[in-house]
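> forwarded from #structure-qc
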């Protein structure tokens, strides 16, 4: 919703204009990971390595314009580093090549990284959310690692066509917020690597506005386009 307006030239509708926020359900942290045998132990090490060997470190993503791509572009802009983007068709092949040393780093969800971190195949350096992840509680945040400019929250929410009647919108808003507050639902979200939120339309709209400004800045600075 907040990324395609800036990267997709063939988009035939305007998400901020044509869709209305209903409820902000959950946030999912992204995590910067490297292979377990990498000499990089921290975000600082990654930045130093990237600056020392400009244009020689490769990073994986799940595709051009994906969130794993754009989070790294955010860090690149913040730290003034030059690392080479290697897009993959999904997280599984990217994670396989990361373990094999074909690429040196990647941003992915904590849910996809946690099993490989637990098994000792990957090393997490930092999560992108303001607070630590419940799945990886020992991993610092980007702000704790010294790079608050690279803080990115991947949210999940519900939207509807902008012309849906307001009474229907309010009814949906109440239903979704109440659902997220159910203990079983919250526990399931946490198990999936998400942080339950359960906020209404106004708060969700503020998140969307902030994200639109963030991705406009990152896309304009990086030149990312999806043809």
């Amino acid at each position: 919703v907040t990324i395609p307006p800036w990267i997709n030239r063939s988009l035939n509708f305007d998400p901020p204009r044509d869709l209305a926020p209903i409820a902000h359900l959950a946030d999912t942290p992204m995590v910067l990971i490297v292979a377990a045998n990498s000499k990089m132990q921290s975000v600082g090490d990654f930045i130093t390595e990237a600056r020392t060997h400009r244009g020689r470190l490769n990073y994986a993503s799940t595709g051009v314009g994906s969130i794993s791509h754009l989070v790294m572009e955010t860090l690149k802009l913040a730290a003034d580093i030059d690392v080479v983007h290697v897009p993959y068709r999904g997280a599984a092949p990217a994670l396989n090549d990361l373990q094999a040393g074909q690429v040196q780093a990647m941003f992915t969800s904590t849910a996809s990284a946690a099993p490989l971190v637990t098994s000792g195949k990957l090393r997490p350096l930092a999560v992108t959310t303001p607070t630590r992840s419940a799945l990886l509680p020992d991993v610092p945040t980007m702000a704790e690692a010294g790079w608050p400019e690279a803080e990115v929250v991947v949210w999940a929410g519900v939207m509807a066509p902008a012309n849906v009647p307001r009474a229907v919108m309010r009814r949906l808003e109440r239903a979704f917020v109440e659902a997220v507050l159910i203990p079983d639902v919250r526990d399931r979200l946490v198990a999936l690597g998400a942080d339950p939120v359960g906020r209404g339309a106004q708060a969700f709209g503020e998140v969307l506005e902030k994200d639109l400004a963030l991705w406009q800045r990152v896309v304009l600075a990086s030149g990312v386009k999806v043809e």
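QC bot note: The chain has a mean pLDDT of 94. The chain has nine helices and eight strands.
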